[in-house]
Specification:
It is built from six helices and eight strands. The protein is globular. Helix 2 (59-69) links the parallel strand 3 (50-55) and strand 4. The protein has helices at 32-44, 59-69, 95-98, 102-109, 122-139, 151-162, and strands at 4-10, 20-21, 50-55, 76-78, 93-94, 144-149, 179-184, 189-196. The chain has one domain (4-196): Rossmann fold (3-Layer(aba) Sandwich). It has 205 residues and is α/β, with parallel strands linked by helices. 32% of the residues lie in helices and 20% in strands. Helix 5 crosses helix 6 (151-162).
Length: 205
């Protein structure tokens, strides 16, 4: 099967980025900077023959995906498997306060061995993301698609495909509104670029 090209997009920024651990909290809209990032991402991807645009169901991702899909005249397809991590008791907590907690430090240092209290284990996040991206690969053989989601789940999937331990996935920087190009074949994967800021002229395949 010919490889499928996935353009992975982290949603645009919100007032919570760097401030609160929002996870699946629904009321986190893009701010003005985030909306501008979405438009830059849309321009960056506008000349590609995108067969589909997929998104997490959370509004910050959906708004980003709608911007990306608009130049192509296609509707966004929502996939629940692309949703952000369930942070359990830490959901919507202030990050400055969480950083003082030993259990939060352990979680960030060794995600393979720790999960948020009442939340989702990193291995489960990785499994649902990898399974979903493989489903999308199989649905669009040889095509190009955009997938809009959240930093930690996207990092977990990338770590799997490039052979990086999940404890080290946080080293893969994924900034708001930035684009990563991953090519998936039947038996291999190729990371063509990571965390590219969508500035300048539109790209081509």
């Amino acid at each position: 099967m010919t490889a499928t090209t996935l353009f992975l997009v982290r949603h645009g920024t919100t007032d919570a980025v760097g401030q609160r651990l929002v996870g699946r909290h629904p009321d986190v809209p893009l701010n003005d900077a985030g909306r501008a990032q979405c438009e830059r991402a849309a321009t960056f991807l506008a000349n590609l023959p995108l067969a589909a645009v997929y998104s997490s169901p959370l509004e910050r991702a959906l708004a980003t995906a709608r911007a990306v899909a608009r130049p192509h005249g296609i509707d966004v397809r929502v996939r629940d498997a692309l949703i952000d991590i369930e942070f359990g008791e830490w959901s919507n907590e202030n990050l400055a306060a969480l950083r003082d907690r030993p259990e939060f430090r352990r979680f960030n240092a060794q995600r393979a061995g720790h999960a948020p209290p009442g939340g989702e284990h990193a291995a489960l996040v990785q499994a649902r993301m990898v399974t979903e991206l493989c489903r999308l690969r199989d649905a669009h053989p040889g095509a190009a698609i955009a997938v809009v989601g959240h930093a930690d789940p996207l990092r977990a999937a990338l770590a799997f495909f490039i052979g990086v331990a999940i404890d080290l996935a946080r080293r893969l920087e994924l900034d708001p509104g930035c684009v990563t190009r991953l090519e998936l074949g039947d038996t291999d994967a190729s990371l063509r670029f990571l965390n590219r800021e969508p500035t300048g002229a539109p790209i081509a395949l």
